[in-house]
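Bug #77: duplicate submission created two jobs. Keeping one. Sequence:
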Amino acid sequence: MQEAGNAVRRKIAGKNAVPSMRDDVESGYMRASDTSSSKSAKYKNPYTSEGEKGRGCFDSLTCTIVLLLGLFVLCKFDMWYVSTPTEIKFAQLQVLDEEVIKFARIMKEEEERLYGRLSSVSEARNQHQEALFDIEVEHGEKVEALKGIADAGEEVSKLKEEIEKLDREKKEATKKLEDEIQKSEKELFTLHNLIDNLTVDPSRFCHNCDFKQGDLNTTCGARLKYIMRKHDDTSTEQAMHGIIETDPNCLEKK
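Kept job's structure:
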């Protein structure tokens, strides 16, 4: 009878019963050590105790680490998937092409500048040489004219002074022109050397030498053919120079 009464009471109480201690523990609102009745129990935040606070931080940190590791693995997989060896080599080839063409263009611009200066200096030197010749001719004509006057009975001393004056003028003008010509010759020599250094002797370019940059492994000759085929506005010498700049191994040692 007592057991039946208890069962009835439990059924009646089930409709209006407050959460039990076990329910509170399972739902995270109470600790299992609480001994107060279910009616008087107060709901507590799980972070009010140091133990629960530490566990919450640990769980949050663990989730963050796991998330970061997952992102890292995903990125590595994406890089592996997108960047295939062929594409990596192609990207490296593009960079090398840009370097070769950059050097070739610099060489071309510098060569044009030097040739322009060479033409200007050569023209100036030629003008100085012509002026020097004209001075020589003009001086000779004036001296002959003065000698003719002297033969006609003019004062010899005065004519002599005129001739000496012409000689001094000729000497000064000649010295100035000769200095300019010498200066031009030195500059022309320097310009010729600079131009020679801008180009590569085709006989010294090693076509069969290995060209290795990154994952790219080919020959210098193959690189030259590729550059000339892709950039037909570049001269052979400029392309050779650019390739040697990126890999000095392509230049045969003397």
